[in-house]
Amino acid sequence: MITGIVEPVTILKNARIGYKNLLVGASDASASKAITPNTYERYVSGSGTTTIKFQLATSSTVDFIALAAHTFGTHNSGGTSVGIKYATSIGGALTTLETRAITTDDAFMILFDDIAVAEIALTFGAVSGLEIGVVSCGKSLEMERMIYGGHSPIDLSAKTEYQSTTSDTGNFLGRTITRQGIQSGYSWSNLSPVWYRSHFQPFVESATTTPFFLRWRPDAYEATVYGYTTNDISPSNMGGGSGLMSVNFNVRGYA
Question: Which domain does 126 fall in, by range?
Fold first, then answer.
């Protein structure tokens, strides 16, 4: 649920990818763990109402804030209400972008029209021990084309490895989950070669080492993945003299 969006929002059907995290510091030293790309190190809250501020190196134009590997949905019974705010200068007055009632621990990516930001803040009330693994803010990559039919939404696409045990006579004795996450494929066609080289290739180069946020259908679904590619990303020329390109890759995500 979203309330109180301050900036006008123009959300298109094209996927948005957040891979350039401009956050460089935090008001609480322990919260600096949340601006690294790994999901293992986490900020852990104290008790009561908390405001955490994250700073950019310099005031920059941004259009997304995203979180992953958090426990806002399950830490409190019924979820947690989070105020997502920004300031145009370090230590300046905070303006609320959204107040969001978070009822799951899924990654999420809020999108808004361009604003100049020097600092963002998260405000929430929680009992001790709420965790935040990743916080990201920056300028997203908007894909040139939509994703069409045949796509498997990643929030519905589990990737689970099991170890099953059976008896000599075939009786089922139990199953252990050895690894779990989510995984899906993303595919685009009719990408102009100039757009690909200018806008998509920088993401390709970043994705070789760094996870990213991807919201596949912003106009209709909240579904967002924080994940990483499972293979190199290489485009194909579609032929016909147009120079248009297609590209596809798999993403495995934290769940």
Answer: 2-142
